[in-house]
Fold these 3 entries.
Entry 1:
Amino acid sequence: MKTKGKIPMRQCTGCREMKNKKEMIRVLRTGEGEILLDATGKKNGRGAYLCFSRECLEKARKNHGLERSLKVSIPDEVYDSLEKEFDGIDSK
């Protein structure tokens, strides 16, 4: 029995658990410094991963995990817009 190679694993910046890359959402910092959600996981830029849960986003906000991973300070307005985008994903 042959396997299909490695399964890419990523660490959630909120709960710090290692999970399958496909089970997570990528938060992206573009070259212009814009921070957004990357649903495809293929856009250019520096990325950090979060579980598909609002709790992980709140933990990442509290422990500054996204700021550490993306190497940039993130204003509250950006976190608020990420929460709105998360709500849009949760309803799908």
Entry 2:
Amino acid sequence: MPLRLSIDRFEGDLAVLVDDRGRQINFPFDLLPKGVRAGEVLTFAVERDTEATRQLQAETKAVQAELKKRDPGGDLKL
């Protein structure tokens, strides 16, 4: 289900977006479509990307395994 947010105002490099309940979300201005203005309504679609999640998890596990090979274990000596 798309999320509709209106642009309330701009504060520096952030846009303050407001949902239909009045909740505010700070959003980077440079990620918005060019030429948007306060008062406009934007539609967002937020979806899970399960394949990208699996890939990131696999990459993270590989990095952790590589780091574990170099870790002698035991207490940290300062």
Entry 3:
Amino acid sequence: MKIVTFNINGIKARLPRLLEYLAEQQPDIVCLQELKTSDETFPEADIRDAGYGVLWHGQKSWNGVAILAKGQDPVERQRGLAGEPEDEHSRYLEAEIDGLVIASIYLPNGNPRPGPKFDYKLRWIDRLAARARVLLAEELPVVLAGDYNVIPNDDDTYSVRAMQDDALMQPESRAGFRTLVAQGWTDALRTRHPGGGVWTFWDYQAGAWQRDAGFRIDHLLLSPIAADRLLDAGVDKDYRAREKASDHAPTWVTLR
């Protein structure tokens, strides 16, 4: 089973690239982030025509997450995270597919820092951690897949110096991510590539793609039962080079 997380960076603009990816790779499950479209304008018909059932949690112009499943409809479990009732950002969607629990996550960027956006990011990590503890207690195969907007380690970026002031790499961001993983989750990509140097994002600016100046912010965290089924994990990097591509590449794990 191939499970993909893919920050699509605007599903309307990237729909041809997404349909191309589905046709070529035939993943079993895809978690999308940064849809940048409302619920009403989400391209459900195009995705169903490609052979995928779909759930989505949209937001006009910003954020938005979705879960696609090949040949079936994901069964929704939860949308949004508890803890801040006034939070209207569409950043979390959770579903069940064939006994597997899957969440699509778009964690806040947090820039500029310091400030309210960075404070929101840290609170959001804590809220995610609270939900993650509940999921672990269910003792099911779970995958928390998404754009976490956290560079966990120095070897997860092309340049520590270039990113040292960014919210993605602050000690508080890293500590939140480490605390989450320490609950008992397995970072699939890190497990398969322990030496680092694997990027999932390349900015559109300053020739970042051409220079391979990227970093790793898209993660798939596995519960113990899911981790026992881990076969491989990687990045479909070539898709970042295509015309009008997202600035993220599809990042994946395969499970037995």
